[in-house]
From TrEMBL:
Residue intervals of the Reverse transcriptase domain: 57-142
Gene3D superfamilies: 3.30.70.270, HIV Type 1 Reverse Transcriptase, subunit A, domain 1 (3.10.10.10)
PANTHER family per the UniProt record, alphabetical: CCHC-TYPE DOMAIN-CONTAINING PROTEIN, PROTEIN CBG26694
SUPFAM superfamilies assigned: DNA/RNA polymerases
Name of the protein described by the UniProt record: 1-phosphatidylinositol 3-phosphate 5-kinase-like
Amino acid sequence: MVDPDAHPTAHHTPIPVPVHWQDDVKAGLDQDVRLGVIEPVPIGTPVTWCHKMVVCPKKSGKPRRTVDLQPLNRHATRETHHTQSPFHQARKVPHHTKKTVFDAWNGYHSISLDERDQHLTTFITPWGRYRYLVAPQGYVSSGDGYSRRRNPSKDQVR
């Protein structure tokens, strides 16, 4: 859901990754390729949209890899889907029932992107260009799309 009249923004130079994080960052990229989250962009593929990969420290001091999708978000239409807060959902659980909590680790990664839209999520790194195969965190509509699929409203449940 991107404005068809939007002019693509493409960055052609990666942001350098500090030397002491390079092995960890590259290993994270390789792991996401193995998981089917991203793929290397084939050589010879024209550049349309190309975002910056940004690496910053976590509280632990380890690197956090993010992709700056702000240029794409400026031209995207949000797929608004309201979901009750976790507090209100938990309050609906009857007393004296067993409860459990699950972490939807990489939950957005369960939402595949249409092949025709994958080029919109291309990002550049010191190791080349990659693109998402699934909904990326940081894209304005990813959260709504995930919530709609994982927490359907009563009229969507059959």
